[in-house]
Amino acid sequence: MRILGIETSCDETGVAIYDEEKGLIANQLYTQIALHADYGGVVPELASRDHIRKTTPLIQAALQQAGLQAEDIDGIAYTCGPGLVGALLVGSTIARSLAYAWNIPAIGVHHMEGHLLAPMLEDNPPQFPFVALLVSGGHTQLVRVDGVGQYELLGESIDDAAGEAFDKTAKLLGLDYPGGAALSRLAEQGNLERFVFPRPMTDRPGLDFSFSGLKTFAANTINQAIKQEGELTEQTKADIAYAFQQAVVDTLAIKCRRALKETGFKRLVIAGGVSANKQLRQSLAGMMQQLKGEVFYPQPQFCTDNGAMIAYTGFLRLKQGEHSPLEIEVKPRWAMTELNAI
Ligand code: KG4
Ligand code: ZN
Fold first, then answer.
1. What CATH number matches the domain at 2-117+302-338, 2.40.50.100, 3.40.50.150, 3.30.420.40, 3.40.50.12280?
2. For the structural domain made of 128-297, what CATH number should be given?
């Protein structure tokens, strides 16, 4: 079985082909980051228009990369939510139309399930059950995972997502959107002692997160530094980036440890854009070593949005005979707990 995967939920057009026997045989990605950079964030209408321009050529490129023709594809998986409605509509319309023309089944995939299952594409995939920490630009969730589609939400952010907090703080430091990765590079030059940010919601029980206060804390720290120094030096920026990142990483680690204790599980999966963060990976790896458990994460290119995770997730569901009806339906808001177990 060979599945074509199409991801267009936000600002990346991703197309990939997953082959049941050979694994991933094509992977194409076009990022719109430059298009949105001038606006300091994703402009939904521009995103939709760019997906229209890029999706079909990327499908052709993926087929060519795999040395395949349209008739070699057995099914199509497309992201149908959550995400930007216009962007989702582009991928869903193209996917459904091709499936109709090629007379093959298609399935609408949940974007966060795609992220959650991305570590399965690695050489050493995690076994079920595990705790998953999903950290992206739009979501921060701790999930108990007993199998594909067997998800229990243990906790989530009550305000900003971790990636959103990274991006907003990066913007305050004068970095281009999306600044998460750039902030993390800047933090490498930072001084560990100079600033200490709070670890929000860690002093009370529960597994929910709140990151919006950290952005305010960063804004206040920046204003104070400007008052004292006249202007923000590169070193001060790096010191603030370091302290902010450390606070996010520590907070995530504390809640992961709690979730593991609560479930009794020894395996932790991290996925979504922020799981590319080196400091987070290091910190969780150290913690899991202490707990005599194991941490799993996707390779960096599959942490952020991509077509491979959608092709793979769609493959698992299409293989079980699941498929979506012909109507083009998108779900901009969609809880992962509504998914069927397979
Ligand atoms: O999963 P993703 O590509 O898109 C969503 O589904 O939202 O995640 C994008 C988010 C952005 O907020 C970006 O700044 C953040 O992931 N990100 C990072 C890093 N790489 C990407 N945040 C911190 N450190 C990184 N290395
Ligand atoms: Zn994503």
1. 3.30.420.40
2. 3.30.420.40
Which is the closest atom of ligand 1 to the Cα of 276? 26
Determine whether the shortest distance from the Cβ of 180 to ligand 1 is under 6 A: yes
Handedness of CA 11, 187, 175, 215 (dihedral sign): positive
Of all atoms in ligand 1, which is nearest to the CA of residue 180?
14
pLDDT over threshold 90, residue 192 = no
> In the chain, what's the furthest Cα-to-Cα distance?
67
Q: Is the CB of 304 under 6 A from ligand 1?
A: yes
Mutate which of 140, 156, 166, 336 for ligand 1 pocket (most atoms within 8 A of beta carbon): 166
Region 187-193: mean pLDDT is 93
Q: Give the domain ranges of the chain.
A: 2-117+302-338, 128-297
The predicted-structure confidence for 209-267, as pLDDT tens digits, reads as follows: 999 999 999 999 999 999 999 999 999 999 999 999 999 999 999 999 999 999 999 99
Determine how β-strand 23-31 pairs with β-strand 12-19.
antiparallel
Rounding to the nearest 10 degrees, give the CA dihedral for residues 103, 104, 110, 112: -130
pLDDT value for 5: 99
Q: pLDDT tens for residues 288-333?
A: 999 999 999 999 999 999 999 999 999 999 999 999 999 999 999 9
**Binding-site residues for substrate:** 134-138, 167, 180, 277
Burial of 287 (0-12, 13-18, 19+ CB in 10 A): middle
Cα–Cα distances in Å, from 1 out to 78, 105, 271, 317?
A: 16, 12, 26, 12
CB of 82 within 6 A of ligand 1: the answer is no
